[in-house]
Each structure stands twice: as structure tokens, then as C-alpha cells.
TrEMBL record:
<dbReference type="GO" id="GO:0016491">
    <property type="term" value="F:oxidoreductase activity"/>
</dbReference>
<feature type="site" description="Lowers pKa of active site Tyr">
    <location>
        <position position="80"/>
    </location>
</feature>
<dbReference type="InterPro" id="IPR023210">
    <property type="entry name" value="NADP_OxRdtase_dom"/>
</dbReference>
<dbReference type="Pfam" id="PF00248">
    <property type="entry name" value="Aldo_ket_red"/>
</dbReference>
<dbReference type="InterPro" id="IPR036812">
    <property type="entry name" value="NAD(P)_OxRdtase_dom_sf"/>
</dbReference>
<dbReference type="InterPro" id="IPR020471">
    <property type="entry name" value="AKR"/>
</dbReference>
<protein>
    <recommendedName>
        <fullName>NADP-dependent oxidoreductase domain-containing protein</fullName>
    </recommendedName>
</protein>
<keyword id="KW-0560">Oxidoreductase</keyword>
<feature type="domain" description="NADP-dependent oxidoreductase">
    <location>
        <begin position="23"/>
        <end position="301"/>
    </location>
</feature>
<feature type="active site" description="Proton donor">
    <location>
        <position position="51"/>
    </location>
</feature>
<feature type="binding site">
    <location>
        <position position="113"/>
    </location>
    <ligand>
        <name>substrate</name>
    </ligand>
</feature>
<comment type="similarity">
    <text>Belongs to the aldo/keto reductase family.</text>
</comment>
<dbReference type="InterPro" id="IPR018170">
    <property type="entry name" value="Aldo/ket_reductase_CS"/>
</dbReference>
Amino acid sequence: MAQTYIELNRTGDKMPLVGYGCWKVDNKDCEETIYTAIKNGYRLIDGAAAYENEVEVGRGIKKAIQEGIVKREDLFVVTKLWNTYHQKDHVRPAFDRSLKEMDLEYIDLYLIHFPVPIEYVDPAVKYPGGWLQDGQTSIAYERSPIHVCWAEMEKLVDDKVARNIGVSNFNVMALLDLFTYCRYKPATLQVELHPYLQQKRLVEWVQKQGVAVTAYSSFGPASYVTLNEEGKTAKPLLSHELVQDIATKYEKSTAQVLLRWSIQRNVAVIPKSMNEGRMKSNLDIFSWSLEQKDVDALNKLEMGARFNDTVSYGFDLPLFD
């Protein structure tokens, strides 16, 4: 059996290579979905304040613990700091709210969701704040440097409420800057990764720095068909002829092929499925492997297609340029 986890820097915590992603899990289904995921073997739960379902995620976790399926220490819970809470005095309150909403005593991994400091929005007015303030058509940035925000993240580690801290949607330049002043190096980087957007140089460089990489949107455009034109027009990876041919060869699903492609790069994945059968199959990616010729064929699908792109959402922010 292949190794099923990545050992994180500093703590040595074993982060599962396959987790359950909470983005776009509807509130009415979320508690039961998270419970079902845990019951079926998921131990990493990847959430965020911006997903607006942390209360229900916490209830699903609590139900699984109360039924004796797992203990809290068996789980690896991830959540993220939203853009409107980067300011020095807002990081800890934002974290505490996530902790309270999930009814947990600590978080296993807390990430800065985007390297984009946006003007604070009082949670009493709107929680969490979005990309745009009400009535505005452009992003209102805030003078909250990442080095100040990261120092507050490090205090969460000092206070033993976050075991690990990391970042999401950062590039090499942002990480290089962070490395010059951090007391605690990020444990992980979470970025969009799939055969259409492989980010080979980024992944390899980050891993050489001792930082683990987690892929989101492993199925490419599947999650973006309702969000932008790119998601609507790109050929779905889950039904791509090449991916289907490889899946047939191994008697696996196309989703399993795409997930296996990532973990063979030692990149963690956080697929979401509401179907219990697919939940189970998405975990079954360790007892087999892709031959190099099939990996090479999938690698040829690279087209630099980014689906989680601020510009495609209509924002004047070419974040990934």
C-alpha cells in the first residue's frame, strides 16, 4: 500500500493525501454529507469561512465523534482566513469565529485564503465579507501587509489553537517574500491543479522548500460551469476521451484517474462528491498506480487553463499574472 499522507514541516503532523472539500456543499446537506464522508474513511476535511457552511461542517464532525466513528485527534480539519480579515486586529477574531462555528478546540491547518487584503467588513453587517463591498464595482484594498497578517497567524500556533498554518493561491514571489521574515514556514500551499493547469515549476519548487502542496479543483472545469465562461466552454476532464481511455484500462473511474495523477506527484487532493459511492471510489487511489506512459499522456493536456481566476469573475485583479 502506498503512503497515504504527507508529513508536514515543523510539527511532523501527517496530513492525509486525500481529503473531503467543503466548497459548494449546500448548507441543508452539509452536516449529513460531512458525517457520511467521515463514516466512509475521510479524515481530512477542507473548509473555509468563505464557504459559509462551517456551522454545518462542525455538526457533521461532532456527529461522527459522538457516534464513536472517530476521535477528534483522528481528524485533520482545515479552514481559511478570508480576505477582509487580514488586518492585525482582525485575524484572531476571524479565527475564533471559525473555531466557534465548528465547535472545535483547535484547527489542524489554518490558511490565508488569498494574498489579497480587502477592506474590513464588520461581521455584524456581513459575514464573511465578499470580494466587493455592497454597492461597489471594484475591490477596495486595505493596507494590511502579509508580514503583519502572518505574524498574527504565527500567534495562533504559539497559543496552540492552530497546529499548522499555511497559504493558498500564493505564487513563488509571495512565498519568497514570506520566507524572509516568517518564524514558522508555511506547512502547505493550496492551489488550483489539474491536467489542464499543472504548474509543474511551482509544485516542484515549493516541495523542495519543504512545503506540502494541496490541489484544489482536481477535476478542472467541473466546479466552474456556473461561475465563468471558461468553466462552461472547456472540455470536461471527467469525460475527456483520453481520461476515459485510461480509466477503462485500469477499470477505474475518470475521477480516480485524475486524483491518482495528482498524488503520484505527492500532491494532496480534496475532491467533493455528494454521492456516497463516488466518495468511496475517490478514496480508492492508493492500491494501484498509473504507468509512466499514461502519466506522460495526461501531462500533454497542459493548456494553462485556470478556472478559479479573479479576472474571469469580472474583477480588475489579474492575481495570477
